[in-house]
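Hi P.,

Sorry for the delay on this. The queue was packed all week, but I finally got your sequence through. Input first:
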Amino acid sequence: MASPPPAVRKLMRLLEPATDAELEAMAQESRNITRRFFGCTLRLFAPIYLSNECINNCKYCGFSRDNPIIRTTLTVDEVEQEARYLYDQGLRSLLLVAGEHPKFVSDGYLQACLDRLRTFIPSLGLEIGPLPDDRYAEIVHHGAELLTVFQETYNRSIYETLHTAGLKKDFVWRVNCPERAYAGGFRRIGIGALFGIAPWRQEALALACHVDYLLKHCWKAQVSISFPRMRPYAGNYEYTPDTELMLDDRHYVQLLCALRICFPHVGFTVSTRETPAMRNALMNIGVTSMSACAKTEPGGYTGAGLNRAHITLHGVQKELTEEQRSHCTKATEQFAISDERSVPEFIEAVHAAGLEPIWKDWDDSINIR
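Then the structure:
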């Protein structure tokens, strides 16, 4: 990059090696900025995995097409069953997640899920593969307000090495997805990089450039960043993590604080990939949104869809043998979570941090049954 934007140049300085005192000062500044712009609040949500079918082959992901895992896709009734469970836990903001497979997550399926859930869930988001431009406005019309799409890595050579089959191979198609979704009417846009598959400082600067671009070109939307870290035991089947690339806890905190100082209005999301202790610490220094009681497999909350569980290998669906079915207790999860606290336990930690949990946005026009 010939001339990085001012915010990115500032981030470059803040990501230099820091002493304990410097890091503490950054954390205090990050906390103060967050309280100034977001108040003493923490937005809560939970994911619902609709399907773990996928046509992409991503070497770091357990959902990859060539991985012989237990797969299923929920029916619309089963999606509602999962959502009702989370509703009873108090959650009113849900993120619908699906692998990229047009046969299973077909045209009309997402719309039907949104139509069913919007009658009692006020805030609905999607984490799905990029769609054709004309589909985004339709999805928004059916009730979605948030689209999350992770670039995974902004290092194009590494990206091409790790994505060997499927629509996700197209780096440019994916990186332009948030802007296309904004043009379609999404009012919240989430992006992120998967830290651990490329040098973390380079990844952070590229992510910051993307944020800076979206703030200038998608200025009517709320932009948020997620900070997932590679989990070596989270279903990887072809990828051996490089310990030199892993983002340790100290640098994770430094990165989060540095990004908050450079982008004071941007939302920050941290998932249950992180441990309870880490999430408790991050609540007060910059995070604005966290998932709670997450399950990362279809039917994870209620066991829905297990009766149709099967193995898909190289795109070919194979029924489970009687022995496999007798030992099958759930579909394969995308990654193993670290924070397994129940909603009440998590809320207790939120209150202990001096924060107020936000369950939903204002929704006086919706009919909650």
